[in-house]
Design brief:
This protein is mainly alpha-helical and 271 residues long. It is 79% helix and 0% strand.
Length: 271
């Protein structure tokens, strides 16, 4: 029996090892991805940025896939697989010795003995899918992420005041949306000013956070006061613009009237 024939008998075991590694490394990658997802979600709670569902799911998916890909493409020598089989199946280094021994009169019996023992061992018997610390950490982080996302909707008695606060914040933003609706509508027009567009954008972000329960009543009132102040500033700018336009129009009319008078007088003098 040649060495390649023995290595061929190791193929099912090597395949099983890769699957078990993929199970483990996907948990490692998923844990890291969930940490990033939780940090992203925390930033959304604090109002640092807006976390869309895809920005939460993306690092988790990347972490899981990275772990699986790493397990499937990493270098896995036959010697390492043989040592794992010997240790877990208690074959007393039969497979490793048969694989690494040089060509001697005893090589053939060693390889035949190793193959006969391999035939009595199933890959799934010695390489099992086990829950590790990484799987536990991934499960805990996933629960934390779900709680973070659905906290305002959880029907827990001790969250009653929290839910009421979020409900009142939502009402504040809805009232603000009604007041500033003309500005939001006009911000869609091509001639809209930067201030109008900025007010509309801030209001949209505020509305999203309120709908998701990420906005407290206190923060909603502060934001509402700020946006109303900017709306008043916009109104003053509009009034000043109208006043300037009116003044220019009156001046232009008076200039035109004076010019017409001068032309009329010049015409009479020529007669």
């Amino acid at each position: 029996m040649e060495q390649n024939a023995l290595i061929k008998h190791l193929t099912p075991f090597r395949r099983r090892v890769r699957l078990v590694l993929a199970w483990k490394y996907s948990a490692v990658g998923g844990t890291i991805g969930l940490i990033f997802a939780l940090l992203t979600d925390l930033g959304d709670w604090l109002g640092k940025w807006e976390a869309e569902p895809i920005s939460i799911a993306f690092p988790i998916a990347i972490g899981l896939l990275s772990g699986i890909v790493y397990a499937l493409v990493r270098f896995l020598p036959a010697e390492a697989v043989a040592q794992l089989i010997d240790r877990r199946a208690e074959l007393k280094d039969r497979v490793t010795t048969a694989l690494l021994c040089s060509e001697t009169p005893f090589t053939q019996p060693l390889r035949e003995d190793a193959v006969s023992h391999l035939a009595s061992v199933r890959p799934s018997q010695i390489f099992r899918f086990r829950l590790t610390t990484w799987h536990g950490a991934m499960a805990l982080l996933l629960v934390a992420l779900l709680v973070s996302n659905f906290l305002p909707q959880l029907p827990l008695p001790f969250l009653a005041s929290f839910r009421q606060d979020r409900k009142e914040a939502k009402q504040v933003v809805e009232n603000l949306n009604k007041v500033l609706k003309p500005i939001v509508e006009h911000a869609k027009e091509p001639e809209a000013t930067k201030l109008e567009k900025a007010i509309a954008q801030q209001l949209r972000e505020l509305y999203k956070r309120a709908q998701r329960g990420r906005l407290s009543k206190k923060e909603a009132l502060v934001k509402a006061e700020k946006l109303l102040a900017e709306a008043e500033k916009l109104q003053r700018q509009s009034q000043e613009h109208i006043k300037r336009v009116s003044t220019k129009a009156i001046t232009a009319a008076e200039t035109l009237k004076e010019s017409m008078k001068q032309k009329a007088m010049a015409s009479q003098m020529q007669r």
